[in-house]
Amino acid sequence: LRIEGNLKATYTGTVEIETVDSAGQPISASLTVSQFPSFVLPGFGAVNATTVRSTDSAGLDVMKHVPPCTLRIIATSHRAKTVVIPIRVVAGETRRERLVLHQKVLISGNVDFASFGIATARRGATVFFDGPLEERAITDRHGNFATDDVIAGRYEVSVLLPDLRRLPAQPLEIAGEVMDAIRIVAAPGTSR
Q1: N or C: at which end does the chain have fewer Cβ atoms within 10 angstroms?
Q2: What gap in Å lies between CA 94 and CA 64, rounded to an integer?
Q3: Peptide bond into 37 cis (omega under 30)
Q4: Distance (Å, rounded) from C-alpha 164 to C-alpha 126?
Q5: 121 φ/ψ angles, rounded to the nearest 5 degrees
Q6: What residues does 61 pair with on adjacent strands?
Q7: Residues contacting residue 76 through CB under 8 Å, at least 6 positions apart
Q8: 41-63 pLDDT tens trace
Q9: What is the model's pLDDT at position 79?
Q10: Phi, psi at 115, each rounded to 5°
Q11: Residue 6 carries which DSSP code?
């Protein structure tokens, strides 16, 4: 047997992660990286490995020599909305991902059930925020709600009552870090 030439095999790939804020500026973030599948243990089956890394002050992290697999990356940063993405690693290739971590906005308020023709406030009504993200909050027995799972942007806000009636959607522009005491009331002619 005779082999000639320069043989070179690549069995791993590279993953480059960049984390930025909503303005495109680099930010440092914690990265929880899970690899599926990692390895198989006889009698236990597939075991998935998880590691915690971080991007540097320039928002960069490079993972070299990653075997072919699918990675699940969870990027978190102080007061930013968590980003979760899958990345398929292919031998011999470099995958580049830019993750935008938007600043979370704390929003609280009250659903004015009386303005909708509902005599008493409803505990457990769901307030939906449909916009850049789809989020929701649950009202207490006074119609109050709060969430910090939204980001700045234009939303349609609607309320689903525990009896599954949906109150009409209304537009809301969310900006800044905190929006306090918003009030959801019936628009003229929409009370039931």
Answers
A1: N
A2: 9
A3: yes
A4: 10
A5: -65, 155
A6: 17
A7: 29, 30, 32, 82, 101
A8: 677 666 667 889 999 999 999 99
A9: 80
A10: -70, -20
A11: -
CA distance 101 to 81: 6
Pair type for strands 104-111 and 69-76: unpaired
How far, in Å, CA of 46 to CA of 37, rounded? Answer: 6
Q: Which residues contact 117 (CB under 8 A, 6 or more apart)?
A: 186, 191, 192
Longest dimension (CA), the chain: 90
* 68 and 15 Cβ atoms separated by less than 8 Å: no
**How many other CB atoms are there within 10 angstroms of residue 149's CB atom?**
16
134-138 and 126-130 beta bridge pairing: antiparallel
pTM of the full structure: 0.68
* Look-up of token digits 């938007």: 102
Buried b (16+ CB within 10 A) or exposed e, 104-125: bbebebbbebebbebeebbeeb
Beta bridge partners of 49: 35
